[in-house]
Design a protein that fits this description.
Blueprint: H1 7-13, H2 24-31, H3 41-45, H4 50-154, H5 159-240
Length: about 240
């Protein structure tokens, strides 16, 4: 004698709201079909309801596929809008970055040119001063030589006096040469000090440029992060609301 059918269990088995049991009627129908030679437990429980169970499952599955297609289409449109917003944001960020970079490069180039011109002016000034003093000494030296020649011609007969004058002239020439050496040493010291000062100044400018570049990079990153957070918030608000 067959057992009474458990109708409550049969309803739970074909419940379309349970995603894990949604395909069970089709599997049961294929597994226990007459061709396989098996018998279905559902058929044993209630011989009057198997066909209705299979039809209901297929109908609900078709409706769920339609709903899934609509949801996929809406999600695709939403992703396209989100992608367009991201492309626009990236384009704006790229333009802003290019503008900031060009401004920084122009400022740095102008500062370097001003420093180079100032250094060149100082070098030219020192060189002109050295040339002026050296020329004055050379002129005095030439004047002394001319005087010496005149004295030699006049005092040919006065050898002793000429000898004394010659000694005096040699002393004067030694002083002039000493002066030239002192000027040369002074020029070299001034040139070395100027090179050291310029090197220190260039190092300071280089360090300052590094700091400015680091600050600029930090500002750009902060701006990018802030804009990304803003865009993500807007996108989430658009998706949620």
């Amino acid at each position: 004698m067959p057992r009474p059918a458990n109708k409550k269990a049969a309803r739970v088995t074909v419940d379309p709201q349970s995603p894990c049991q949604r395909k069970q009627p089709a599997e049961v129908n294929s597994r226990y079909s007459p061709r396989s030679g098996g018998s279905s437990p559902l058929l044993e429980e209630d011989d009057n309801k198997p066909a209705a169970v299979v039809r209901t499952g297929k109908k609900r599955q078709f409706e769920e596929e339609e709903e899934g297609g609509d949801f996929g289409s809406e999600m695709h449109k939403m992703l396209e809008l989100f992608g367009a917003d991201i492309s626009k944001t990236l384009s704006n960020k790229k333009k802003r970055l290019e503008h900031l970079t060009q401004t920084s490069v122009k400022t740095s180039t102008k500062k370097v040119e001003e420093i180079w011109k100032a250094q060149q002016h100082e070098r030219n000034k020192l060189q002109e001063e050295y040339c002026r003093q050296a020329e004055s000494v050379f002129q005095q030296w030439e004047t002394d030589i001319e005087k010496m020649k005149e004295q030699e011609e006049k005092l040919t007969n006065l050898f002793k006096q000429q000898q004394k004058l010659f000694l005096q002239t040699r002393i004067i020439q030694g002083q002039r040469l000493k002066t030239i050496r002192q000027l040369n040493e002074q020029f070299m010291r001034g040139l070395d000090e100027l090179d050291k000062a310029h090197s220190t100044q260039q190092s300071a400018v280089h360090s300052e440029l590094k700091k400015e570049m680091a600050l600029l990079q930090k500002r750009i990153l902060m701006d990018m992060q802030q804009r990304e957070v803003t865009n993500v918030r807007k996108s989430l608000q658009t998706m949620l609301f």
